[in-house]
Structure formats: structure tokens, C-alpha cells
Amino acid sequence: MDEHFQFVGGSETSETGQKNPSAIKISHLSLGYRDNPQALIDISLDIPERAVTAIIGASGCGKSTLLRCLNRMNDLIDGVNYDGQILFDGEDILDSRTNVTTLRRQIGMVFQRPNPFPKSIFENVAYGLKLSGVKSRRILEELVEQALRSAALWDEVKDRLYDSALKLSLGQQQRLVIARAIALKPKVLLLDEPASSLDPISTLRIEELIYELKHSFTIIIVTHNMQQAARVSDFTAFMNGGRLIEFGLTENIFTFPTSRETEDYITGRYG
Amino acid sequence: MPVVNARAIRSFLAGLIVRFAGFAVIFSLLGMFAQMVTVAYPILAPSTLTPLGADLKTSAYGGKLEEDPVDSTCNVSLSVAGDWSLEGVVGESWFWVNSLTGFRVENTDLPKVWSAATAVGSNRGVAIAASDGVISHHHFLASTREGDAPWSKLVEKIEWELPVIKAAGHPRLAVLALLSEPSNLTIIDFRNPQVQLTYALSDKPSGLFWESPSLLRIITGERSELFEFATTDIGGAWSRLIKPVHYEGYTAPTFLWLPLPSSEAAEPKYSIAPLLFGTLKAAFLALLVGAPLSLGAAIYVGFFMSPVQRGRIRPVIDMLTAFPTVVLGAIGLFWIAPVFETVLTGLIGIAILFPFFIILGVFAMRSAGLRLVRLDALDDWPLKLLPVVATAIVLSAWAGIAASGFLPGGSLVQYLEGQGITLAYFNSLLVGLVLGVAITPTIFSVAEEAIHSVPKNLASGALALGSTPWQSYRDIVLPLALPGMIAAIMIGFGRAAGETMILLMLSGNTSIIDVSVFEGLRSVSASLALELPEAPRDSSHYYVLFVMGLLLFGITFVVNTLAEIIKDSVKAKTQGV
Amino acid sequence: MSEANKKFLSSTHRQLTGSRLERLRSLAMIGLSASMVTTIILISSGLFLLLVTSALSWLIGGSGPEGANWSTKLYSLVFTGSDLGNGISAVFPAIFGTLALVILMTVFVAPLGVATALYLTEYARPTWYTKLIRISITNLAGVPAIIYGVFGLGFFVYGLGGQVDQLFFSDQLPNPTFGTPGLLWAALTMALLNLPIVIVAVTEGLDALPSDLREASVALGATQGETVFKAVLPAAMPSVFTGLILATARTAGEVAPLLLVGAVKFAPSLPFSERLPFIELEQKFMHVGFQLFDAVLFNRVDPGDLGWIASVALVLVLLISSLNLIAIAVRALVLGRQEVANPF
Fold it and tell me: Does residue C14 carry a pLDDT above 70?
């Protein structure tokens, strides 16, 4: 088959029924690096705006790799080379002339294990803002509070903003990292298995947060937890062996998958 | 019932041997320090005066008594250096008398009324027991103008109430033996004047003289008593090792290290200060050269390189350790020192212009469309930058050398001469340069380890927020790695302080305290290497050398321990993440 | 939209162009630090090239006695030396002396170092004072070499040597036999100097062994002694070799302590003899590093002889680098082996 992705569901619509424009358009993306020359194979995908898109698949299928293409974090890998195009805001992300630092302020990322800086809570959130040139203390404080509120962390930390971030629980740390990312008001938020190192209650809180955040941000979440994908996302992409197998509305993917591979994965036959 | 068979016995014996050997080794290693202390300890010993016994043969010493410089008219004549002598008569002024010309010059510094006066320290000074209860010690100093009379300088004064019967100065040292009422023998060591050795004689003594530097004979009527005087070169005053000391023949107290003066009679000088200063100066200059090189490289290798490349480049950098310090010293001596002026001007040029050329080159490579230098593909920069670096070195060195031609005087050396500075052939800068290269691998490996141990995901977090790679290093990694880098510098310092061969070959071994980097220096380690083979066993020189060895041991041990503590504190911090 | 947000968004827009400065600065700083790596490599290569060209030009070039071509010179360099001019002596006796020193030193350091490492890791209970001992030993690795020489002079040469003379060679006194620097004391001093290095290397190797190795041995009914000597130690052999190689490299390169405990410019004979124990322990001996030092410091070396200095230096450098490379290879072998041994 030439076309490796199956679009299920007719047209890209979010749950409100409106047609979502694409936040990110991925065209024929292939990627290889020294240890894995075929990490991503000819992926084409349009990510809908202001919605949650989940990327699921077995371990090693390339979902994190795909995610990290979107903010060029794969550049850090030894011997990486890209093919294809990723359009964001009218520009090709993969172009070597792209200003990667500003790109990353518009496409934020939260990692699998919470990685707050060994600084105070305030400093963690303020770091990105300072990088963006915010100098006024007053504005910083206001923006930090905004971000912490949006991340549903403000009430828990407002009295100890200057304590070390490492004293927070893992769940709180992850929300702090989210606050840190959204403080920059990015257009897109990339979440790479954000709850996999958290306990079930914290996981739930993160999922609730995602539900809130999608009104303001385009969210792409990689997860190995299918139930989570089903709960949280509007759209789902299924990957296997570096290829995109299926993409569509979440409810459709999970109830009427088109591809046999998708069905096998979802029903638990492998993965 | 425990198993007892051949196997068990063999195993037990093996265990015993291992325990014993291990224990013995640990004991020896840790005991090294203690053993060195026992060797050096005697230097602290105070002088002693031991009576050896009396005998009756006073008549045999009659002739000796006539040599007593104090005669019935209380008239003293001491020969001083050259043709001059010092003559004094009680109640009148002292005079410098020239034996050739008969010239007499009055010396108004010495007291006129005295009860005893005697030469001390190989005729380099005089001790006078004045009648007002003060014993004063003066040095003789040659005049700066040829032919002029010498002059005397008061070195110290001691209160002395008891009337003095007779006094005799030690033939070599600044030590005074005196007999005072009613029948006391006292030894005053001007090196350590507060501590006086006193012995109560059985009868009132009539005379005394030094039979040898260690034997003192006291005449009491018909009998004579013999005393043994044992002392070290510093007379129990260990502060002489660290304070400025007023040596014979010098106008003021100074720091001097001269344990083997050229003339037999001169006193040995044991100030450790110039040697310590030399060691510290060399180490500091070496850090100035080595730290930027090694820290810069450590930042790049520890943070910006991928694991694969890092594994490859580290042994390459370690290749520098294949040059033992004796080889580096030889290279410095034969290839660098002869052209040091050129090297120095080149280095100045490099220090100023190298960063500029590098940055220029990096930008040029980037914007020339070659796309050789991408911010995102950092691994082979050292290789790709090779032509840039080589060119930068050559250009900036050439610029420095050429610029020196424009200095007043036409060259760096001439310019310095004009300022009153002479560039010694063996100077501190040369030492610092070669030593700096020698300690670079040491600082590099510790610093690189520290930087690399900071978890990478912290830096990733910063990058994802839109920081540049340098910002992610500077804001997140550097604060965490800083203690490790400081520890690296400390370890490098310890290594430089303990280094011997380079110092031996390139420092000129001049024991001076001079801040000027154009002069040479002498380090503790080099002194140990040069002087220990020659120092007679169990001599004061030998002891002092061991003291210095202990000092060096102590300094490096403390510095290294502090560095280890600092390194461990880093681990505690990064583990919290 | 709050005022702060407005301000932020507009300043961000400003910063989008301003961040160019940051990117340039990043480029510049990374470039500078990378250039330090290049510089270090250039320095090593430069020094090496200097020695090689100087040695080669001397070997092949004009200076030296008439009619001497490069092979004669090479031969003279190594074996005879005297026909090359004053101040130059052959390298062979020095190599021989260095070898003798290294062998003797290894004889002392290997069992003692290994035993101590075994004691610390296998036998001693891990209390605070064993930890303290380990830290002390690591610190001792950082003590300057000359201090070991000072200790060796005081304790071995004058202390033990003096005693030996009193007891066994009193008829020779006051001419010292053992109470003077010599091969035995030098070997002991270098052994002491290298003990911390060997102990640390072997301890690292022992610590890195998986604990199931010991457990498996005990489960098979072995005593502690058998476990240690038949299972643990053989597995740690690579790190023992690493330690010994590092010690050897250090012995070849460190001259400072030898100035005090035994090396000389010219020893009348090689330190070997025909009688037992086939090695003259009280003799002074020659050493390559010392040879170089002596030529450098105390000889009036003609400009034409610089090449000889370079050749001797090169011999030393090549010797030490090959030893280091072997140590690296052995260490890589250790890591490789461990992966095979522990497939988890």
C-alpha cells in the first residue's frame, strides 16, 4: 500500500462539530539516526488545532521520535537526518534555517519524567519567560501566577513559591513542568507520556488538566496507555514500526479501526 | 562441629595472609606521615647544656686563659673582616681600627660602660654586657663604600640584672656563655634569646672558654668543669623557619633560604618562606595557563558531545599524559627557553586575539553557506574547527610577535629593560607555561566528570523552553557542575605544587620572594630533590628538609581532601533530581 | 487581555528577533570551548612532532662523527653511545635499569596491592573506618612523588639500610652497603608510590563484579578463601593488570623520587650478577627518565646533540603511551567481559 495512513471518520472534526484547521501539517516525514536508520518512515499527518491528538503504539514504534520532531529535539541525537516537511505557521520546521529556539517557545514540551530545575518553584516557571525577554519583576510574577493557575498548581504552592521545586511530589513536579511550558503561551503543547511515572491519582489530575488546557492549546500526547488515550484525546494516531497506520477521531479508532494492526493493538493481542 | 580439613585450613590461611598483608599495607601507607614526623622532630629540640664532669688539671689550661679577651684593664680587641678591628676600653668609646693605616673611627653605637664584651658568631658580631643591666648583641656590617670603616647594628637586647664575671662568645654561632654572680653559668642563644640555659656551679668560677663548638670549659679555682653544648642550626626557635630573621651581615631581618652558604663561617639560613612562595607562585601561574584550556575543553566534551564521540575523544586528550614531566621540562629547556622572548610575545598575542579569531572563524564558517557548523550537530566541531584554530593560533601569535617590534626599544626585552625589568632566562612565566600544560589533563578529567554527571534531562528541559545550548549549559548545568570544576582546579593546584622535574629544570632555583613573573623561583619540591641527597643524615639541614617535605605533604593532602569533599557534595545535590 | 499579557506578547515579539544575539553568543561560546579541545590535541601532536623531527633529523642528518649513517647512529644510541660525542651515553643500560626497577617494583606491589584491595572489599566489614581507609588511600594517590622519595630516603635508605649495614655489613662501615640509595630501596619506594594506584584500580574492579558471582560460589559450597581466590580474583584480573600497567607507566616516567633513592647517571655495571639472587640489590642503577634529566641538567649539551635528547625523550614517551594504550584496551576488555557475564 502506498498510503500508509487511513483516515477514519470522514472529515476532521472536533467534538464540537466544528472543522478544525491544522495546527501542524506533517508531509512525508522520514527520519533516521545512527542506531536506527529507519526510525520514522514516510509519515503524513495533519494535527488539528485546539484539540487533543493522542499518538499510540507499541514500544519502539516511533511515537516519541515523531513527537520530538515537532520541536526539533531530535537534533540532539547522534547522526540524525530528516526527510520531508513539517509545516507550522506557514514555515517548514525542518528547514535548516529555522530558528529553533523560537520554535521551541511556540511548541512546548513536557517529558516523561518530571525534570524541574534545581531552583525555586518561581524560578522554574520564570525561566522560559526570562529567556523570552521579560524583565519586569511585576510582569513575571503575574505571568507565573497565571501559568500556575492554568496548571492547577497555584493553590498548592502559592505560599511557598520560593521553596525548592524538588520538594514537591512527583505529581506536583509534573504540573510544575506543565506550568513552565505553558507560561510561554505556546501554540502547541507536546506531552511525552506525561503521566507514566505518576501514581493513579496524579495521573487523573493531569488528565483533567489536559482537558482544560485543550481549549487554549493544541495538544499532542504520546501515551502507551490506551485507556488514557481513549479518555483524554479527540483524535488518535496509531503507529507501528515507524509508520503511521491509522489516524482519526478517537471514538472511531477505538470502536471501528480499519487496519488489522490497529485492531490487534487495541484489543491487546500485542503491544 | 566446624569443618576442619585441608580445604578449610588452606582457606583460613589464605584469609589470614590477606588480612595481614592488607593491614600491613594500610598501616605503612598511613604511617608514612608519622615516620616522617619522627625524622623531622629533632629540629624542634631546644639547645641543651650537659655537665660532663670536673677534673683538676687547671694548669694545663693556663695558656688558654690568656686568650680570654677580657683582661684586667677591661680592654677588648676583636678582629673584624678585612683590615679592621674593633677596640674598646671600659669607660671610653669604642673605635674601629684599621691595622694597615692605623686609622681610627669612633663607634658611638656601643655602650661605653661594660663589664664583659666578646665576639660571637665567627667574629660577625659582638655581645656586650653593659653595666646598666642590659646585654646587647650587635652585628658587624661592611660599609658600602670601599675603604670606609664598618659599622655595627644592634640586633637584640636582653635584660640582665646579675653582675657579669666573664663572658665568652661561641666560635661559630651567635651564642654567649656567661658567668655571673654568685656562681651561675648561663648560655644565651641570640637566635632564641628568651630561652636561656642556666647551670649553678658549685664554686665561684674565674674563667671560661670554648674548647670547641660543642665543649665549654669553666675554670673554678683549682678545678675545671667541662660542659657539652648541643644545639641545632636553629637553636630550638622553630619560628626562625617562618619569620623574617636578622642574619649576620644583613642590615634587616629577611627571608632567606641558604642552608649551605658559600663561606664556611657564615650561618646557614633556613627560612622556608621563599620556597613556599615559589611553590605557590608556580602553581598559580600554572593554573592561569592550564585552567582555561582544560575547563573549556571539559565543558565541550562533558556537555556538548554525544556518548560515542566523547568516549573517543577522552583518550585522545589523555594522550597528553604520555609526556612525563621530565620530558616536558626537557622540551621547555631546550626548545622553548632559548626563544622564550618570541614565545612570550606570541603568547601575549594569542591571549588577546585568539578568542576573537576563533569567534570570527566560527561565524565565517557558518554564514559562508558551507553549513559545516550547525548549532544542532555539535560533535565534530573540534575536528571541523581545526583549520580555524590553527590559523587563529598562527595569526594571533604572529600579531603578538610583530606588535612587540613596535614597543619602545624595539623588542619586548628591550622594553622591559627600559622599565627596569630584566627577563631572567629561567623565569616564572616559563615555569607556569610548561607546568600549566602538564596539569591540563588532570584538571580536564575531574572537571569533565563533574559536568557530565549532571543529568541530561535538566538541560533538555531548558532547551525545550527555547534556550540556546549555551544557555542551557550556563543556566542549568554550570551551577550544578561548579563545585566539581572548583575541585578540579584545586586538584590541579595540588599537582602543580607537588611537581618536581619541571621546577628543577626551568625555575632557575633562585630562592627569592619576588612577585615579578620575569624572575625565577625556587620551589619546595625542587629544594628537596637538590638538597636531600647532599644533606648529611641527622643534620639540621636534613631535619629542616623533612619539615618541608611534611609541609608539602600536608598542603597537598588538605587540598585534595577538600576537593574530594566538594566533589561529594555535588553528588548529593544532583541525586535529589 | 491583561496588561501583563499584552506586555509579554509584545516583548516576546521583540525577543524573537533579539534572540539572534543569544544564538550568536551560543555559537561563539561553544566554538571557543570546542577550540580548547582542538588546542589541547594540537599541543600534544605538536610536542610529539617536535620530538620526532628532532630525533629523525639527528639520526639522518649531518651532525655526529664522520661517516655515521642513520643505522650506525641508531645502534650507537641504543648500545654504545660513547662515539657520539661527550655527554651522550647509550640508552640500553638505562632501559635495562628501568626494566629491573619495574620488575622488582611489580614483585612488591602486585601481591601487596591485590591483598589490600581484597582485604578492603572481601574481608573487612564495611564500617566507617574502612571507608575512611579507602578515602585515605585515594588521597595518597595524590601525594606528590617527591614526598615518597623523601620518605624512602629517610625510612628505607637510612633507616632500614642503616640497620642492615649495622647487622650484616658492619665490616664495610663507614662505607655504606645498603645504607645508601640503591635498586632495592628504589623499588620499594616506587612500590609504595604505586600502591594507592593499584589498590584503587583493583578495588574498582572488585566493586564492579556482580554480587551473584560470590553468592554462586558460596552456594556451591566454597569457603571464603576459595571464593576469593578461585572465583573473585580471577574475574578481577583485568583490573589487576590495569593497575599494574598504570604503575609501570608511572615508574618509567616519574624521576623525582629516584633522584633521592637510587638512580645515577652512570652505573659501572648492570644491576645483574651471576650469583644469587641474580640481581644486585644494593647497586645504583640507570633509568631512562633519569638519563634524560641528567643530560638536561648537568651536561653541556651541544646544539647538535638536541636530537639525541629528543630520541631519548621519544623512547620514554612511546613506552608510556603504549602502556597507557594497553591499559585502555584491557579496561575495554573488562567492560566487554562484564556485559557477557551479566546478561541482565
Answer: no
Which of C206, C245, C191 is closest to C119 using CA atoms?
A: C206
> In the A/B pair of chains, how many CB contacts fall below 8 A?
79
In order of start, what are the domains of chain B with their CATH numbers?
A: 48-253 (2.130.10.10), 273-575 (1.10.3720.10)
Over the stretch A234-266, which tens digit does the pLDDT of each residue have? 999 999 889 999 899 998 888 888 888 888 888
CB contact under 8 A, C14 and A133: yes
Q: What whole-number distance in Å separates Cα of residue C328 and Cα of residue C337?
A: 14
Of A66, A161, A146, the C-alpha closest to A109 is: A66
Q: Is the CB of B470 less than 8 angstroms away from the CB of C29?
A: yes
Residue A271: per-residue pLDDT: 52
- Residues of chain B with C-beta less than 8 angstroms from the C-beta of C153: 532
Helices (H) and strands (E) in chain A, counts: 10, 11
- This prediction has a pTM of 0.87
Beta bridge pairs of residue B79: B85
Q: Do B465 and A108 touch (CB under 8 A)?
A: yes
| CATH H superfamily, domain C91-337 | MetI-like (1.10.3720.10)
Residue to substitute from B372, B453, B460, B465, interface A, most A β-carbons within 10 A: B465
Picking from B300, B334, B556, the nearest residue to C144 by CB comes out as: B556
pLDDT at A7: 44
Burial class (CB within 10 angstroms; exposed 0-12, middle 13-18, buried 19+) of C275? exposed
Q: How big is the CA angle at B205 (ends B203 and B209), to the nearest 5 degrees?
A: 140
Q: Nearest-CA residue of chain C relative to B15?
A: C225
- CA-derived radius of gyration, chain A: 18
Chain C: nearest CA to B577, how far in angstroms? 25
Whole-number pLDDT of residue C84? 53
Nearest-by-Cβ selection for C16 from A102, A129, A142: A102
pLDDT attached to residue B473: 93
A48: nearest Cα among A236, A259, A258: A236
Q: Tell me how close the Cα of B33 comes to any Cα of chain C, in angstroms.
A: 8
Averaged over C223-241, what is the pLDDT?
84
